[in-house]
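quick one before i forget lol
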Amino acid sequence: MSKVIGRRHLAAVALMAVGMTACGGEHDSGAHTAKTTGSRGTGQSARVLSQRRLEDAVVDAHDLPGVRVEEIGVGSEGVGSGVIHAVRRTRTEPSLCAPVSAAVDGASAYAPVGSVQRVAGTKGHSVILTLVSYRPADAARVIDELRAALKSCKGYTAAGRMKAIYEDVEATHDPSQGDSGVAFRLKASLTSGGDGLKLPISVIVVRHGSTLAIYKAASKTPGTSASIPSDLVDAQSKVLDAAVRR
């Protein structure tokens, strides 16, 4: 492997791991804990998945033949699957991009009920899959705030274990699965200075009742778009739809 290709591969792995900054102890003790309301479309009739039910709802080979799902860091000194926490809005500059930054991490400004994070792979593709259950009204707010932020957020810097710079933030077509959802893409680098390692990232966030499924893929090659397999999203969506409906 050449030094250039090696650096790109390591950068892609590092950028995929940046989402782990939403895990562990760096959470916001003053996170949003909004009371549940009777707002339409918030998933009031759907089950709020417990941690156990959330883990049972992760897609597997029975749901999608050939899929490989592993805990993050298996076979290495990886960062582990962790637990998603609410993320401080002050971690992002400018703060208007905070919902976008949190979504890249698989998180939000709201305290979750339960969460699970895995690496899901199909042939030729690898995706960070995060399932997070919220209070019903909070789940809808995450989508609404993310959609609003994408209208004005063009780029930002996120603080955490590694300082990452994100540019060219752009909303794409909303996903058709679930009750609502948002999709976007952006480019990321671990340092500024135009060294060519600006790697494309794609993110899809789908709400199923009060549970969010977040899919994140990073390209290993600058200039090549990051692809999230549609069959993976379809299969995981079917499992979650069945899990959250009473």
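fyi The CA atoms of residues 112 and 119 lie 20 Å apart.
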